[in-house]
UniProtKB/TrEMBL annotation:
Pfam families: MazG. It comes from Roseivivax jejudonensis. The keyword Hydrolase applies. This is Nucleoside triphosphate pyrophosphohydrolase. SUPFAM superfamilies: all-alpha NTP pyrophosphatases (SSF101386).
Length: 271
C-alpha cells in the first residue's frame, strides 16, 4: 500500500483517517493503539476537551490548532474502533451531527422565522431536545443527562432541567439560606460517610447559587485554581530570592507573602 497519503502535508481528514486505520491494524499497527478500547480511550477524550478549553481560557491561540487536532483525533479514534466492530464509521458520525444541527435550527434551515431573540431560540432548542428525548422513550425530566459530565456542570444542567418545570427557588436569598443550612449539617456530620454526603449536598447548592447568579461554576473554579497557582508561584519566587523553598518557610511567612502577591496583583489591575 502506498504511503503517499500518510505523508501528504495537505491530506486533511482522509490522511488522519488513514493514519488511524494504520495505527489500529492488528498486524502492522502500533501494539498500544491496537489494544485500546472505547473505555480506555474515553479518559483521554475528556482530557483533550479540557486542553482545548484551557487554551481558549488562556487565549493561547497559537496552541489552539494543535489542541483541536488532538480532540479531533479522539473522535477519529472512537469512530475507527466502531467501524472495526461494524457499528458505524466517521462519515456516520458526521452525518448524525449534521442531521441534528439541521433539525435543531429550523429558523436557519427550515421554514421557521429567524427573527427571534437568542432566548427564544434557546427555548426552541430545548423543545426540540425534549421531543428527541420523547422519541427515545426518555420520559423523565432528567433523563438523558450524560453521566460523564464534570460534576459541577452536570449539577447545573440537572437544576436547569428541574427549573423548567417549576422546581426551583424563586430568589437567590433562598439559595444562600440553603447553603447556610447545608454548611451547618456538614459541621455536625458524625462520620466520614455522612461528611461526604453533606459535602456533596453543599457543593450541589453552591452550583445552584452559581446558576442563579449567571456564573459558570466550572469556569469560576478554574479561575480560582489559576489564581492559587499564580499566587503560590509568587511565594516560591520570593523565597527563592533568599535561596529557600516553601519547605524552608512556615505558614505565617507564606501567608504574608500571599497577601503581598495579592496586593501586587490588585495594584497592577488598577494601573
Amino acid at each position: 500500500m502506498s504511503d503517499d497519503l500518510i505523508f501528504d502535508p495537505a491530506g486533511g481528514l482522509p490522511r488522519l483517517r488513514e493514519i488511524m486505520r494504520r495505527l489500529r491494524d492488528p498486524e502492522t499497527g502500533c501494539p498500544w493503539d491496537v489494544e485500546q478500547t472505547f473505555a480506555s480511550i474515553a479518559p483521554y477524550t475528556i482530557e483533550e476537551a479540557y486542553e482545548v478549553a484551557d487554551a481558549i481560557e488562556r487565549e493561547a491561540w497559537g496552541e489552539l490548532k494543535g489542541e483541536l487536532g488532538d480532540l479531533l483525533f479522539q473522535s477519529v479514534y472512537h469512530a475507527q474502533m466502531a467501524d472495526e466492530a461494524g457499528m458505524f464509521d466517521l462519515d456516520d458520525v458526521a452525518n448524525a451531527i449534521a442531521d441534528k444541527m439541521v433539525a435543531r435550527h429550523p429558523h436557519v434551515f427550515g421554514a421557521d422565522s429567524n427573527a427571534k431573540s437568542a432566548a427564544q431560540q434557546v427555548d426552541d432548542w430545548e423543545a426540540v431536545k425534549a421531543a428527541e428525548r420523547a422519541d427515545k422513550a426518555q420520559a423523565g425530566v432528567l433523563d438523558g443527562m450524560a453521566l460523564g459530565l464534570p460534576a459541577l456542570t452536570r449539577a447545573v444542567k440537572l437544576q436547569n432541567r428541574a427549573a423548567r418545570v417549576g422546581f426551583d427557588w424563586p430568589a437567590t436569598d433562598e439559595v444562600i439560606d440553603k447553603i447556610v443550612e447545608e454548611a451547618q449539617e456538614l459541621r455536625t456530620a458524625e462520620d466520614a460517610a455522612h461528611r461526604e454526603e453533606e459535602f456533596g449536598d453543599l457543593l450541589f447548592v453552591m452550583a445552584n447559587l452559581a446558576r442563579h447568579m449567571g456564573i459558570d461554576p466550572e469556569g469560576a473554579l478554574r479561575a480560582a485554581n489559576a489564581k492559587f497557582t499564580r499566587r503560590f508561584g509568587a511565594i516560591e519566587d520570593a523565597l527563592a530570592r533568599d535561596g529557600r523553598t516553601p519547605a524552608d518557610s512556615d505558614l505565617a511567612e507564606m501567608d504574608a507573602l500571599w497577601d503581598a502577591a495579592k496586593r501586587a496583583e490588585k495594584a497592577r489591575a488598577a494601573e
